[in-house]
């Protein structure tokens, strides 16, 4: 059995990145193959970084490097998060195409590849993660590695027209074709990538995921990422969850809860969502005083200007909506700019009548799946999901909305609040089955089978 070698920006050697389902899934694969995991240490240093740090934990070898200030800025803050992130989320208007940031992006991809190659042995398979490392396949090949490389993109892949807006798109596409198996969150993303190769690179779609391009034969498939479904369901009935539900229950005083839980990111459609909630109070007067919307949105990437602007916009909108609709004994919209423990979140999901997951664009959206698993089978809440979230392909039995259409979203929230118990149960049961069957282990296995990695 060959080893699996993972490469991602943050690794599970970093305690803050360890809790997520992805870290657990990758870690489990590595422990079963005796693998290694390469990435960033999370530290930024002045001057040149020292030699990579080697950490061994539960049989997994982590090799992580510090970034210089220039690398952290050019590679991470600028090119990855202010160019690729907005363009891949269809926000070309927010992209900052600087002069030198792509150089930094290339150099970090190369530096990590050079760190990995000397450790690779015949029979190994490499698994690269996400938009930070789109060039990794090319640099691993240039370093002499000709074994299998898989790549999974956690964020959307945009339509060919939008991808072409990226000044370096040709080089990026060519480098991506050095991977052997490319994984996308949805069929839509996969088809965008394949269409680009067919239209712009003389690629031939051979069917069944196979593509011939640039003299190579590669595979591109959709592998929608899942959550640790059963264990999340258990969290929702645990003590911490119950305590959180009791606390918010006191605030609600018998009113129904409409909930949103997102990182504060412009891709999540938060201003549009706030406006839709305002419209609901406007157009459906019976909801006034009976329903309360709570949005949990911890600030993220707060050094980046676009995220600071979003914060200001949300502060203003929340103030306006509460000013317009609030009353002496009722706060229509609450917005908590902080994060909560997963166990507490599970309790909030469970008590919510409706969960609003309305990103303008999202690779998958795990909140939607967590909400489903946290429900009480006797009285499940209703998920309202954006058609632009990857999760909409799998969770089509829920209420799907266009997040730009505030009137329709407002109407759909009202419909969800009024939905009869039987219909809620029927829909929820279908969603639950999908989330349980297509959980994080299913995702990992599906990808590794295609990469021909034998894990037990
Ligand atoms: P993204 O990866 O873009 O942030 P996802 O919905 O796919 O979006 O994943 C978000 C993860 O972060 C989920 O597991 C969710 O539980 C967690 N999360 C989101 N908001 C909060 C919050 N306010 N506090 C704690 N965890 C959060």
TrEMBL record:
Pfam families: Glyco_transf_20. Transmembrane segments: none annotated. It comes from the Bacteria. Belongs to the glycosyltransferase 20 family. This is Trehalose-6-phosphate synthase. It comes from Henriciella marina.
């Amino acid at each position: 059995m060959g080893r699996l070698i993972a490469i991602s920006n943050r690794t599970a050697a970093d305690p803050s990145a360890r809790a997520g389902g992805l870290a657990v899934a990758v870690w489990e694969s590595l422990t079963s193959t005796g693998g290694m995991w390469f990435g960033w240490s999370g530290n930024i240093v002045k001057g040149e970084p020292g030699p990579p740090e080697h950490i061994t934990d539960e049989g997994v070898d982590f090799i992580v490097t510090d970034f210089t200030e220039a690398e952290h800025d050019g590679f991470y803050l600028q090119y990855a998060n202010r160019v690729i992130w907005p363009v891949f989320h269809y926000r070309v208007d927010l992209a900052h195409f600087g002069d030198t940031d792509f150089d930094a992006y290339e150099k970090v991809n190369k530096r990590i590849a050079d760190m990995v190659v000397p450790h690779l042995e015949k029979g190994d398979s490499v698994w690269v993660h996400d938009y930070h490392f789109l060039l990794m396949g090319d640099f691993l090949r240039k370093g002499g590695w000709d074994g299998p490389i898989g790549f999974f993109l956690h964020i959307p892949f945009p339509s060919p027209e939008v991808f072409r807006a990226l000044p370096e798109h040709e080089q990026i596409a060519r480098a991506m074709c050095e991977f052997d198996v490319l994984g996308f969150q949805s069929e839509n993303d996969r088809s965008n990538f394949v269409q680009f190769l067919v239209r712009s690179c003389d690629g031939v779609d051979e069917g069944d995921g196979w593509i011939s391009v640039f003299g190579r034969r590669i595979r591109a498939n959709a592998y929608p990422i899942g959550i640790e479904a059963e264990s999340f369901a258990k969290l929702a009935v645990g003590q911490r969850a119950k305590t959180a539900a009791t606390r918010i229950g006191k605030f609600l005083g018998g009113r129904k809860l409409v909930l949103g839980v997102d990182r504060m990111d412009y891709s999540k459609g938060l201003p549009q969502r706030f406006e839709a909630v305002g419209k609901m109070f406007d157009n459906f007067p019976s909801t006034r005083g009976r329903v309360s919307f709570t949005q949990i949105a911890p600030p993220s990437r707060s050094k980046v200007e676009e995220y600071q602007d979003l914060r200001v916009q949300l502060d203003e909108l929340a103030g306006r909506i509460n000013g317009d609709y609030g009353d002496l004994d009722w706060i229509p919209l609450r917005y908590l700019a902080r994060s909560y423990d997963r166990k507490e979140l599970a309790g909030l999901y469970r008590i919510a009548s409706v969960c609003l997951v309305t990103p303008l664009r999202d690779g998958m959206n795990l909140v939607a799946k967590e909400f489903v698993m946290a429900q009480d089978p006797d009285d499940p809440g209703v998920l309202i999901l954006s058609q632009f979230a990857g999760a909409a392909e799998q969770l089509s039995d829920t209420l799907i909305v266009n997040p730009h259409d505030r009137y329709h979203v407002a109407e759909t929230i009202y419909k969800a609040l009024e939905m009869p118990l039987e219909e809620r149960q029927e829909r929820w049961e279908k969603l639950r089955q999908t989330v349980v069957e297509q959980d994080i282990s299913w995702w990992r296995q599906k990808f590794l089978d295609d990469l021909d990695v034998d894990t037990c």
